[in-house]
Amino acid sequence: MKKLLFLFLYSLLPNYALPQNCQGNCVDGDGTYTYATGAIYAGSWEDGKRSGLGRTISSNGEEYLGNYSNNSRSGYGEYSFPSGEVYKGNWSDSKRSGYGSLLYQNGITKYEGNFSDGKINGFGIKTYYNGAIYEGEWLDGVYFGLGKFSYINGDIYEGEFENDRQHGKGRLTFSNGDIYEGEFENGKYQGFGKFIYVNGNKFEGM
After folding, report:
1. What's the pLDDT at 143?
2. Residue 157: which of 127, 140, 190, 181 has the closest Cα?
3. pLDDT of 42-55, one tens digit each?
4. Residue 128 and residue 102: Cα distance in Å, rounded?
């Protein structure tokens, strides 16, 4: 009776592996555990939790290979989706955190830089499928702060961004050599600015 009660209470703890679903040692050692969802984990265990190097394959085809700590993705790991999207980098509490690279599902667009709380935050570089490049600061997945955007037509903007748009003070250098320096608002010229043309002409004003 005591044994049955123990197994019942044990099954109510989702962080621990049940012996009957394990091949190997899923308490303190190396073992392969099959979850009720169909997901499979193969790797190291400590106190019945995933800890150390391991691989998890979910029933929907998602796959993680990397380090675990206390049952959470922690440290370096690689996570791939059936769509082709792949993240390689650091984790904390099962969220992308620290330096990493994210290859998008089109197989071309790529981000390299900092992550925090599972989102792109801090400094990073994103190269788009068409060749455009953003290099600068991010906040929760959008351009926010100082940055540089290189357009496919050769234009280059350097300055302040907010919510993915030029916002604040910036400098836009056109592919033909013309330059605009001044204020932007929501991606448009706004406020005081100065045009410097390749022929030497200048214009300043609102």
Report:
1. 98
2. 181
3. 999 999 999 999 99
4. 12
**pLDDT given at position 205:** 75
Distance CA 190, CA 173 (A): 17
Note the pTM of the prediction, 2 decimals: 0.85
Secondary structure of 50-111 as H, E, C letters: EEEEEEEECCCCCEEEEEEECCEEEEEEEEECCCCCEEEEEEECCEEEEEEEEECCCCCCEE
Q: Could you tell me the two tokens for 163? A: 């919510």
In which residue are the tokens 């009776």 written?
1
- Kindly tell me the sign of the dihedral angle through the C-alpha atoms of 41, 46, 49, 51: negative
3-state secondary structure (DSSP) of residue 95: strand
User: What is the pLDDT of the chain when averaged over all its residues?
Assistant: 91
d(CA 15, CA 101): 29
Residue 31 CA to residue 166 CA, distance in Å, equals: 52
Mark the ranges of the chain whose per-residue pLDDT is less than 50: 1-16
Q: Which of 173, 124, 132 is nearest to 150 (CA)?
A: 132
Please report where in the chains the tokens 């394959």 appear, as a residue.
57
pLDDT at 199: 93
Using CA atoms, how far residue 149 sits from 58, 106, 137, in Å, is 37, 21, 11
Q: SS3 of 40, please?
A: strand
